[in-house]
Amino acid sequence: MSLLLDNPFQELPPDRAVDTDLFLETVSHIPSFFDCLGSTVFSVIKSDINGNITKIRAVYLKDPAKYVTLQAIVEAERDAHGAQWPKVGATLALMWLKRGLRFIQILLQSLADGERDENNPNLIRVNITKAYEQALKKYHGWIVQKIFRTALLAAPYRSNFLKALSRGEEVKEEDCLANVRQFLVNYTVTVDAIYEMYTNLNAELDYAV
Ligand code: 03F
């Protein structure tokens, strides 16, 4: 079975509110994916994503009834933290988590669209670079950009990456890409909704680490 479709994102309600509990449950399956990629450089990325999920969950668990949606958390922190906000708590964790999710979205979409380097058809560096430039690069100073370049060199071959998304089973490329496309439908809507919320609440920051 496909890793992606085992833990699909749910369709959003008409008001596009993201249910905190469902969101946390769904994203919590992403970090384990890095274990099958081999290189230790991926453990840095895994722990960053894990850390942000943990930070959001810690806030949620303080009052699950109050924090039913992600927006309820961000608004409550805005009201509680004054000038420190939005560089604080779950608001900051979700700000970064969503960038990682956007990176994954653009990478998967690029693969699904068949974008590739004709000279190196079994590499996914063009797809990864596109995702990085659009989702993350401007938030990274030179040291982190160097980590990116290391990760890029350690990136799996296209065939192995697709196999990993299919839980190590031999699945036809077209079948795997069909799963990716199906996964991307609700995933993209969810990531877009979170971005829109950050814009509407004026919660986005553009400092670089
Ligand atoms: C800031 C920053 N976080 C952190 O400093 C950087 C960590 C390392 C970033 C390295 C970038 C490399 C990305 C490219 C990898 C390509 C590999 C592709 C393999 C296929 C923030 O950290 C903290 O998060 C926040 O809590 C803190 O408070 O200022 C704040 C303080 O600092 C980031 O830049 C977020 C990085 C997210 C990277 C996500 C990459 C995902 C890569 C691969 C996904 C594979 C697809 C899996 C699909 C599975 C679907 C189920």
Describe the model.
Accelerates the intermembrane transfer of various glycolipids. Catalyzes the transfer of various glycosphingolipids between membranes but does not catalyze the transfer of phospholipids. May be involved in the intracellular translocation of glucosylceramides. This is Glycolipid transfer protein. It comes from Scophthalmus maximus. Keywords: Cytoplasm, Lipid transport, Repeat, Transport. With 209 residues, this protein is mainly α. The chain has one domain: Glycolipid transfer protein, GLTP (Orthogonal Bundle). It contains nine helices and no strands. The protein has helices spanning 3-6, 20-27, 41-62, 70-81, 89-112, 125-135, 142-154, 158-165, 173-200. The radius of gyration is 17 Å and the shape is globular. Residues 3-4, 30, 33, 44-45, 48, 51-52, 92-93, 96, 99-100, 103-104, 128, 132, 136, 139, 144, 147-148, 151, 155, 161, 209 line the site of ligand 03F.
Please give the oligomerization state of what you see.
Answer: single chain
Main sheet?
none
Order of helices and strands: HHHHHHHHH
User: Helical region count?
Assistant: 9
What is the CATH architecture descriptor?
Orthogonal Bundle
Distance between the amino and carboxyl termini: 38 Å
Bound ligands, named by name, code or SMILES: ligand 03F
CATH class: Mainly Alpha
Based on secondary structure, the structural category is mainly alpha
* Overall spatial form: globular
The CATH topology name reads: Glycolipid transfer protein, GLTP
* Number of strand segments: 0
Number of domains as seen in the coordinates: 1
> What is the CATH homology-level superfamily?
Glycolipid transfer protein
Average predicted confidence as pLDDT: 96
Q: What's the Cα radius of gyration?
A: 17 Å
* Percent helix: 55-70%
Low-confidence stretches: none
Percent of residues in beta strands: under 5%
